[in-house]
Input
Amino acid sequence: MSWRIANECAERRFGSAARKQIIMFLADKASDDGSGIWCSKGTIQRHTELSESTVKRTIIDFLREGILIETGRRNCKNGYTVIYRIVLERVAALEPTAEPDIETGVTVNPVQSDPGTGSTVNGVRGSRWTPNHPKTIHKPPTRKREAAAEVEDLEAEKILAAYPEDRIRDRRTSLRLIAAAVKAGVKPDDLKQAVKAYAKESEGYTRSKVCFSDNWFKMRRWEKGLAQVQADREKAREAEAKGRASLAEWIHERHPLCRHITNRQIEGLIASKLVTPEQVRAAGLQA
Output
């Protein structure tokens, strides 16, 4: 048993009570470096009192997320038991359970009769009132920042609304993860398309196979849909380029089908330098 591993896991969010219960049981069996965990899924199920399907699904999820890795096998009377290791770096990257500390400055003498009026460590006098004092005047956000925040919140709400309604869980966490993905550079429309693709793909899933929204966004499962969106766009671009090349070939050969080419298409062909105005006129079209 390792108190170090247990404490590290206890101080992180794993997305659900079942996931937390399983990782804490595994942490109780680990060495100080997270290795040496060998217990069957049946053993985990008996001790945690969770269903066998929940244990199996959670272990698979932990392996896919990199929280657990397989390091070997140990022979037993029923065949073998897989040996796992908890990856501390991956656990440390998860969201902490502790509330963030509010930094109000450190004074030489922390006990004061009048908050914030004593001299600070660097010699600069502190604020007269603490941040939560009734007389504290907080600087209001600018209209520009308020408008930007409202737009971001609205985009996140629209994206979450595309997720299957019966699988939306922990809206606050889901919206925060969506906002983080958009802030990291993911286009809101692309993320929304990825959500819609998953909703369509999992439409007939049973409850045991579905993924709730907080876990789906936390595990970045939208990346699969995003890759498909980008692949579809690339195919569309290739098809468009192929179509333009065919139209240009008609003009070069003065094919009878040239008469079906619209003025807008002609402008696009000239702009892309696939044909010249002279070639267009020679084909009997107006440049």
About this structure: The first helix runs from residue 3 to 10. The chain has twelve helices and three strands. The radius of gyration is 30 Å. Residues 181 and 220 are 9 Å apart (CA to CA).
